[in-house]
Description:
Two copies of one chain form a homodimer.
Chain A: E1 2-7, E2 11-17, E3 23-30, H1 35-51, E4 62-67, E5 70-71, E6 77-81, E7 86-90, H2 91-99, E8 103-107, H3 108-122, E9 130-136, E10 140-146, E11 149-150, H4 181-185, H5 187-194, H6 201-210, H7 214-237, E12 242-246, H8 254-270, H9 272-276, E13 283-285, H10 292-303
Parallel strand pairs in A: 1-4, 4-8, 9-12, 12-13
Antiparallel strand pairs in A: 1-2, 2-3, 5-6, 6-7, 9-10, 10-11
Helix pairs in contact in A: 1-2, 3-10, 6-7, 7-8
Amino acid sequence: MRVGLDVGGTKTDAVAVDADGEIAGRLRIPTGWGPDAVAQTVLDAVRALGSEAGVDLSTVQSVGVGIPGQIEPGTGRVVHAVNLGVDELDLAAAVAPRLGVPVQVENDVKAAALGAHALHTRGGAPAPGSMAYLNLGTGIAAGIVSDGVLWRGARGTAGEVGHISVDPNGPLCRCGQRGCIEAFAGGGAIAERWAKRSALPVRDVFDAADAGDPSARQLRGGLARGVAAAIRVLVLTVDVDIVVLGGGVTALGDRLMTDVAAELAASAEASPFMRSLHLADRVELLPPGSPAAALGAALVGAEGDATHDAEEALVHG
Amino acid sequence: MRVGLDVGGTKTDAVAVDADGEIAGRLRIPTGWGPDAVAQTVLDAVRALGSEAGVDLSTVQSVGVGIPGQIEPGTGRVVHAVNLGVDELDLAAAVAPRLGVPVQVENDVKAAALGAHALHTRGGAPAPGSMAYLNLGTGIAAGIVSDGVLWRGARGTAGEVGHISVDPNGPLCRCGQRGCIEAFAGGGAIAERWAKRSALPVRDVFDAADAGDPSARQLRGGLARGVAAAIRVLVLTVDVDIVVLGGGVTALGDRLMTDVAAELAASAEASPFMRSLHLADRVELLPPGSPAAALGAALVGAEGDATHDAEEALVHG
């Protein structure tokens, strides 16, 4: 059994995956704030899989953790996980001795890309030679999977398409540049510019745009343009077979996809070359509630073959 | 011995590469126009390596051809090689029976990427884990090499970064979109907008910009912005270790590089994230006259292991 955790800003999604790749147990717990509490969340989530989801912890071979931050390549060290209150944390070192099994840590979007690839293939579809998972959340980033393997890049910034500028006169991005894809299409940037308090600001924007609000229409148009730009970047640079969209903003479902399809159709109309790419046919939506990131984290965990000395091991103890 | 040919719009560059990867012979001949003449050029170039460059043709094991067009994946078929007057040509089928050795065909920029990778490594530098070769010629396109292997993508459009739009109000691109990187930085687009007859229009533009001509300054600024945008796209999407610039426009050398470095410095100044990428340190210029494309074509040829029946074989005959 392989455990995978998706440590999000508010909740942590935990799954146990059996030898056939099927999800044998799943639950969610709140995520703690700061390095110690995040490490404790990992331990609590694994324990809860045993006590509440009926997973036999003695059969667990590895734990993989997806986390919204930069991971130092080849280590279990997390840096700049600002949504978790973590500036720096050697998460693998903090929890592996307690868990008694190898622990691998990966950026959450990269983990979700692996998970989305596994879910796509499991759905009976032929395995794509290459796939990009484009995460539309507070920020915008992608993970690229080729022949089932995650493309990690030279320094951990592969898939950071959110900070490609597509308009020198566009809105200022939190990164400091103008007109980044994330400044147009990031849930955080849209919420900030909408500036009305709401649990679901992007949904508010869509509702207000439907009601004719001009600033909401502008924001909604920018979201579609940003997502379409990210899709074009991924296909024109890496030439992935398919682009799977996921993340919180995709809860808008068809309302979002209709706008994005219209943007892609407009560039196909303007350009025979773009038309030849059949972009609209290469975009898919991750089904809502899919455990892509936690499943992908379990797959990342299974990649590790390091052994760890156990002290008070929670899993094998 | 492996033969590699770079079939360009006016000249064809031919090399013979020995078992150590060293260039044992090199020459250039004019390229013919149209399918039959292009196939004949390939045969003539191989023959000339024997008669004029002292290559023992009986030792040739393969021929690889780089050509400026789309190659149907997994075949030797060229389509849309507009600069050669070729709409469609099964080049491998046309020349392999005459050559009597396996023939592989690849897009010229992708071949040059493999060659640039080999030249970089041969220069004594550690082999980069991943590299992009960004070709600045009439058009703009890149080839990506990871762990020494060319990234071909799903449908042959990997590296087509020239048609990513970076300004919705930018100049119209020949592809039909607005503000493509190629519309700013392609030698063809710049020559068209400069609209003064010249053998080296981009050099003219630099000279006129130095002399204070406002439209030349605008074109020159656009070139640097387009090249910098392509570098950002390659690093933020694929996270290559290094980006090697080559192609006709790079004959401008330091004059071009100074402008590009200033553009990269401006985004690093604006954005701590961009600063953390150290883009300027990751850009290299291919030395002028480097036989990257022909050398890469020889490497592509060596990838093939198909056997071909010989009839009147030129090489082994």
